[in-house]
Structure formats: C-alpha cells, structure tokens
C-alpha cells in the first residue's frame, strides 16, 4: 500500500495560504489542502520570542510526493524559513486512503 502523509506549513496571510493550496492542487502533488486560521503562533526567531497570527495548511499527499510538495511550497512561500513538517498517516478510513492514492498515484 502507498504511504499517505500529512504535511503542514504556516503562512502569515490567508492569501499566501490560498496561493500555496491552489498551486499544490494544480500541480497534483496534493489530494486535499485545508486552510485554517487565523491562529496564534509563539516561537523564537533571530534570538527573540515572537508572536504572530498565521494560517495553517494541512496537506494530504503521498510520501512519494513529499519532495515535490516541499519544492512547490518553497517556490512560493514568503517566509525566509518556512515550517514544512510531514507525518505519516498511521490509520485512516480505507475508502479515504483509496481516494487519496487514486487521486495522486498516476503522477507519483
């Protein structure tokens, strides 16, 4: 069975999040991208604590497409160092996983 993953990244604006989501879907490297927010992120950047509003992208794809997902995000992401994290889907509804794989495998 093909390994499904969830990739997350954040952006500073809804517009940036929607652009990334549209590009991932348009390039057929993601089967689904959810945009949530705004949410508040607290982090350390350049040695100082920071807090900012961000938008979260939850990207459903295949492990075999991770590199292409990362490249697509980096090509359009406005952050100097964007968060891009992938985690495996260890359990999911079988029908959903079949849909995800069928949506993307022809391009994997």
Provide the gyration radius in Å: 14 Å
Strand content: 35-45%
- Low-confidence segments: none
Structural class of the secondary structure composition?
A: alpha+beta
Overall geometry? elongated
Q: What's the total count of β strands?
A: 4
| Strand arrangement, major sheet | 2-3-1-4
- The number of distinct helices, counting runs of at least 4 residues, comes to 3
Report the CATH C-level class: Alpha Beta
User: Architecture, according to CATH?
Assistant: 2-Layer Sandwich
Straight-line distance between termini: 13 Å
CATH topology: Alpha-Beta Plaits
Order of helices and strands: EHEEHEH
Average pLDDT number = 95
For the record, the count of structural domains works out to: 1
Share of helical residues = 25-40%
Largest sheet: 4 strands, antiparallel
What does this structure look like?
There is one protein chain. The protein has 108 residues and is α+β, with helices and mostly antiparallel strands. The protein has one domain (4-107): Alpha-Beta Plaits (2-Layer Sandwich). Helix content is 32%, strand content 38%. It has helices at 14-26, 66-76, 94-104; strands spanning 4-11, 32-45, 48-62, 85-88. A 4-stranded antiparallel beta sheet has the order 2-3-1-4. The longest helix has 13 residues, at 14-26. The protein is elongated and about 45 Å long. It starts with a strand and ends with a helix. The model has no long low-confidence stretch (mean pLDDT 95).
